[in-house]
């Protein structure tokens, strides 16, 4: 990792966290692997945090603070980072997702990023406005690492039937994406349910959203074009929890949802 990969500590509180991680690690003469062992993560995670490609989780922060006797520096910085007034609310949400015990998502237009194949994600990004599409793709794929960690979170996802019918990236890419959904749905910690088109108008038509549950409680994120909004206030988060439950009342059970995904995949010839 070269010095040119350093994150600008003035860019955001997350940039400051990455800066101080590298500063303290190198001050102690530690390698990325050694710091990763202390934090309980891979060396590549340390590298991505230091360069701003990934956010430090609260679990990693707590371990580093204790081992390095920082006085709670990283934990406090994360506390303020997730509550900061910033247009990049999604980065704050990701910090919670990385340490979450449970993630709930609703998507009415496209497959959630947590489940996207690289090709499907690339097709979406190609039509978006990300300045560095390659970096955006790398961040999206890195986000999926929580699905393969030793103790992965419970992930409950509800998608609209239209998500299964819009061939993003072309037939081959889309068929592979549907196969990916089927494979994920077989994991014991993952539930994928589909709201059928016969449901008519429902609350999910307001837009996609996500809810994470972890040690610090529940946080919601409402998606919007070019931005989004982090929701931390308990009463408003509860509104999203209720919305998720109401949408779930209209969704097919897990088995029939899986059958519908398989049916759409088989039709992609």
TrEMBL record:
The superkingdom listed in its UniProt entry is Bacteria
List, alphabetically, the InterPro entries matched. Cro/C1-type_HTH, DUF5753, Lambda_DNA-bd_dom_sf
Which molecular function term from Gene Ontology is one that the record holds?
Answer: DNA binding
Residue intervals of the HTH cro/C1-type domain: 21-52
Name of the protein in question:
Helix-turn-helix domain-containing protein
Native species: Actinomadura litoris
